[in-house]
């Protein structure tokens, strides 16, 4: 009896310590404190819990460009990156179902035949046959929540994959919009360069006529020929860049670069205006932040799973069926057989395997915490970057517009004075170079405004529209993590 009581000490100790088999709390002090305002925002921004499931709508329609709408829709259906992310989500959901099945009653059926001989048989050394058919039931009692935590972790993994699918879809949509807008900006620049080339060619014809008449020297002709050739080279460089962008767009929409073509049209895409004081609730729709949060909570749950490996497991089994040496008697009532059992297993020595498992899970939790913190910091940085970029680009566009107007007027005046012999050819060429440079700079600024607008939309999680105010106030970002973490403990 004394020996028996000593043998129960490890089990009793495990039962006493079972209450400690909880996942460690996440220290919210190590996370990012959500600011109440954006430095580049004029209004107060509210704090909110992640809302990655909120409908983002068709944000690209704000650009009022039917060609862009069609391309984004094609990419959403055919992009290979989206298809790959969807497959990973399906895999994560299958793993969740597999984890849930571990907590369910297991039922199996079996049948067999055994031919044996020896002292242990009924007929001595004479061979005999034993036929059997049975049903087996088993169920593992989740004494310390190990199976429940494993299911929680698998569920959070599936949530993270769902958020990553949203993130991939948003990234592809933004890439399509930015590539398309860059291509349209390049088309506008090509038109400008062609117009400049035509002007240089007209000047060359005029200069050659004046040279033949003896009014100008050969040097003037060579100068204009140089400008014509240089501008032709720039036009070819723009064609090369356009081809590269068109091929990239083909891949994004899931098409072959050899068969995809996008014609040149006038650049009439609208530039959406970001409303002042967009609430920070839109930032919480960022799917990458939601994915990092789910991964953090999943890592926390897996620490609990690793800790539960120190405690005993209880499995209940039952079996029933028939066994007979004659096939015709197998299913007779007299051939029935059954059994029930319970198995309580407690690991004692494993060479440090379980401790290593706990340490590995804790390290994974530390890494997930750092990743979540970095994701939130990056989110705020991207929003601040694009808010400041749009503000400064608006001012730059106004200044550049004044420069274009002045350069255009200078070209008109120089051309008139050159035709009347009041200024030299160099003055006219300088005026045209200045006008071309300023017009192209204005196009670059306009293109940068479109690019920054799309990047801001992506940084905000897809648009800035917000639904009607709910009857409850959402919790701050870090508080949401803490509340969900406490639900897993």
Automatic annotation (TrEMBL):
Keywords assigned by UniProt, alphabetized: Coiled coil, Lipoprotein, Membrane, Palmitate, Signal, Transmembrane, Transmembrane beta strand
Matching InterPro entries: MdtP/NodT-like (IPR010131), OMP_efflux (IPR003423)
Superkingdom assignment: Bacteria
Membrane topology summary: Lipid-anchor
Residues making up the signal peptide according to the UniProt record: 1-25
Pfam families registered for this protein in UniProt: OEP (PF02321)
Coiled-coil features, chain-numbered ranges: 221-248
Family the entry assigns: Belongs to the outer membrane factor (OMF) (TC 1.B.17) family.
Protein name (database record): Multidrug efflux system outer membrane protein
Species in which this protein is naturally found: Rhodoferax ferrireducens
